[in-house]
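Bit of a strange request maybe. I'm writing a small parser for structure token strings and I need a real example to test against, not something I typed by hand. Could someone generate the tokens for this chain?
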Amino acid sequence: MDFGHLGDATSVALLALIGFGLLLWRLNVPGMLTGALDKRSQEIALELTEARRLREEAAALLHEYEAKKAAALAEAEALVASAKEQAQVVAQETRKQIEDQMARREQQAKDRIALAEAQAERDVRAAAIDAATEAAERMLRERIDAAAQSRLIADGVKDLEKRFA
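Reply from user aminoacidic:
Good idea to test on real output. This should exercise your parser:
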């Protein structure tokens, strides 16, 4: 092809480029590209806004759960402290009850020992009295004859009559 006055291939390429640029401008391609880029920019801005909102929600939820966790830990610590106090109170009460029970049992044992001692003392006295009575009776039988026994009985009867008269 002979373009004659167009000269060389560089000029042809320049004219083709200018023609192509005019065609693109005429078909409003730069406006479409700008619109597409603006639309994409708006979509990215919306996505960034949504991401910020989600991040803020997540931070709020994290803060809320951390507060709940702290409250739960404080409540658990309070429960543990309360349980320890109650355990100490129960241990003290139990210790006191055991000490009281031991004191009652000790007193009961002392009372039983005192009763046993008193009973043993009474038994020993009764045995001593019985032995002394038997010994005195034996001695009197051996030393006193029948006439003396009659006289003692008569004297005893007279003494009883005087007392009851």
